[in-house]
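Researcher: Let's walk through a ligand-bound prediction step by step. First, I give you the protein sequence. Second, the SMILES string for zinc ion. Third, you return the three-dimensional complex as structure tokens. Ready?
Model: Ready.
Researcher: Here are steps one and two:
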Amino acid sequence: MNQNSKIALSFDVEDWYHTPAITGSSFSFYRSVDDFFENWKGEYDCLSDGFHYLIDLLKKHDVRATFFIVADVMDRYPEVVRALKNSNHEIACHSLHHTSAIDAKTKKPFQAMDVWEKELILAKQKIETVFGMKATGYRAPNAYFGKWMVKLLERNGFLYDSSIAYNSMYNKTDVSLKNVPSVPYRMNAGDLSNVNADSTIVELPWSYLKTGPFYLPGGGAFFYRALGNSYFNILLSQCLKMGDTMFYIHPLDFSNTDIPLSNNMARPMYWINKGYKTRKMFEKFIIRHKEKFATCRDVYSRFISLN
Ligand SMILES: [Zn+2]
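Model: Step three, the predicted complex:
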């Protein structure tokens, strides 16, 4: 048992229209965020109330975390940017417009690789200009991760990624993942594994629950809202025995604003327990694990110092 293991606590700052059913994927209703704003005439902000709840909660319990921000959020939510600037949290990159990097079905690049890299550079520059700090961490939108991304992250100054969700239910990468640990590891750009690492990128993989031959999803967000603290407390205590691990959720998961979905966009089950129910669980979760939480950058630094 590793008594000192940490949980990298992370939040993906995006709104409901960034989800793949609405924009930025091969099956989305609008092709892109720009397309959404050209055609959408209603209210769009379901992010702010959950975000401000969250940032106040972290302050109340004196917990630092990493916020992976979609760069276009900075154009439309000045109060979110202001609150993050006034905080001591780490800011990391969650792409320019939350476009999936690979196609959900074919696993081929959804964006051309040069377009993907151009957007990555723009997003990184934008975050660094606004927040006056180096953005060294990356998380792929919707966790869709292609092996070709590793070397592009490396050459654009990223130090770590946190997108690999290993489990027996789905695989959002373009390789057949085998035995990915729940602890940080240096990545092999050929198969995204921890064997024969040939990149400088350190992966902070998502937590999972191993039960018999099965690996059940962890990570957070939808699974956290659906399965709650009991499931995640078991899962995290198992992962912490191995070493440092990862938890993530969205400010959007804490929002009490109704998502303005029309019938043809609706995925009612997906938003289960959003808002008050998740807020109630999450404060207990924060109190229980308070001493274990760290930023992703801190967990990355622990890995570097030990390896
Ligand atoms: Zn996201």
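Researcher: And what stands out?
Model: The two ends are 19 Å apart (CA to CA). The pocket of zinc ion is lined by residues 12, 14, 94, 98, 141 (CB under 6 Å).
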